[in-house]
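Worked example

This section walks through a single chain of length 261. The input is the sequence exactly as stored; nothing has been trimmed or padded.
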Amino acid sequence: MSEFAGAVQDVLVTARRGLLRGRREPRLLVLAVLQPVLFMLVFGVILGGVIRVPGVADYAAFLTPGLLVQAVALAAGLAAVGVARDVRGGMVDRFRTLPVSAASALFGRTGSDLVRVAMTAAVAAGVGVIAGWRVHSGPAAAVAGFALLLTFGYAVTWLSVLVGLCAGAPSTARLLVLACLLPVTFVSSVLAPPATMPPWLRPVAEANPVSAVATALRLLWGNEPGPRPPMAYALAWGWVVVILLLAVPLALRRYRRSPAP
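Given that input, the structure is written out below as tokens.
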């Protein structure tokens, strides 16, 4: 077996382990799936009738792409808890005693987490459809949008893996992820355009990667009025690339140097 084929097999084995472990911890999937349902119920159904966005006739159509990005980011953040549990339980040390590279172990781990992220996105999209959201720009745009969405979730998964490796304890990892992701997802264009925010908060929301991806999806899917400038897509993909370029090497380096619990 060639070295490349062996690495691929290691990735598949570790990904399978992550999927099997996810079946034994269904509460993580339930939490990831329940969040977009609750947010759509509160903001799209209960408060949707009193929330007005300038230039947008249907708030649910505006809200759904933002909730998709938020749901994917929070679901990806759960990866930190599982990684921290592996560090605390000694599983990382066991992997390092085996002929398995750090890249194979972590790419397999993030691959299994991507499955959970995709399931969360599917549920969030289904809830949006029930609430009245539609893609108005055709199947190709729908596929392109979900490709961007899942790739963004995958990038956040790598950040979560890095947090889990550094945290050392699952409870600490959970707190760190929530402390980082909740402000980032709420101070963004998920619930309202940055133009409606106070002047001191507007630049923060506009420079937010969550806002960049949410805006790109709305323009791509025809859920926001106005032209569809390529710059919006380039900015969103630029954030995804930057996150991956920073998180992947840092996570691999931390994995190799993780101290024993």
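What to look for: The mean pLDDT is 81.
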